[in-house]
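To the wet lab folks,

You asked to see what we're planning to order before we commit. Fair enough. Below is the target structure as tokens, and below that is the sequence we designed to fit it. If anything looks off to you, flag it before the synthesis order goes out.
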């Protein structure tokens, strides 16, 4: 992976421990592509130094994003309305998909709906699912899993602080090697960066609070 596609956090490297696997995290959907032993996010899975990915739509890389999916905002919105209204099997819709050359993202979203339980209640779910598919070319499934929709909170049953759109983890160890955000608007780069900074600050605080961190390095 080229350096221009990755943001690296220049901070001390550590692993954080948590006595309760889901004390700080909550999955917003059941993703069957994640290995069973990694299904419940755990603070111990997150090193304090990891790659950051910010995914946008067509033209986003020119605006400073690390990655982009070749789809326009209007086409992403159209596909969202198709899945939100459960119209994806209607003959007229299928013909329009072919006419607008949207077969590839359309099929990707159908697969995400089946295997990752996307409901597409939010417009941003479209880009999140497309981003996961494209990232799988950089992080192939025999070695990695890619998921998202992970909320984090101060304590169990506490208020949600934020949500991570993208997580890349090692299938064997569950170690998270990259985190990311997806944004449909190319002017939302600063917001995405702030969301990732907030999560890393949360990690650092919880690691220190737990007193159960061990040194480690993500390669």
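Sequence we intend to order:
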């Amino acid at each position: 992976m080229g350096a221009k596609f990755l943001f690296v956090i220049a901070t001390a490297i550590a692993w954080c421990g948590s006595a309760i696997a889901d004390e700080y995290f909550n999955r917003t959907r059941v993703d069957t592509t994640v290995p069973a032993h990694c299904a419940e996010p755990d603070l111990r899975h997150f090193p304090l130094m990891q790659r950051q990915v910010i995914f946008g739509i067509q033209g986003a890389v020119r605006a400073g994003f690390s990655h982009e999916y070749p789809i326009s905002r209007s086409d992403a919105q159209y596909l969202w309305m198709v899945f939100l209204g459960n119209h994806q099997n209607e003959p007229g819709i299928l013909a329009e998909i072919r006419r607008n050359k949207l077969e590839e993202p359309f099929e990707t979203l159908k697969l995400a709906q089946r295997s990752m339980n996307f409901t597409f209640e939010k417009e941003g779910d479209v880009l999140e699912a497309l981003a996961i598919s494209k990232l799988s070319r950089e992080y192939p499934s025999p070695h990695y899993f890619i998921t998202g929709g992970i909320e984090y909170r101060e304590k169990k049953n506490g208020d949600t602080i934020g949500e991570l759109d993208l997580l890349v983890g090692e299938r064997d160890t569950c170690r998270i090697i990259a985190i990311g955000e997806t944004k449909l608007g190319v002017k939302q780069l600063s917001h995405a960066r702030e969301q990732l900074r907030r999560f890393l600050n949360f990690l650092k605080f919880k690691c220190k609070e737990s007193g159960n961190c061990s040194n480690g390095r993500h390669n």
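Structural context that might help your review: Confidence is low (pLDDT under 50) at residues 1-21, 212-219. The chain is about 30% helix and 15% strand.

Thanks,
Computational group
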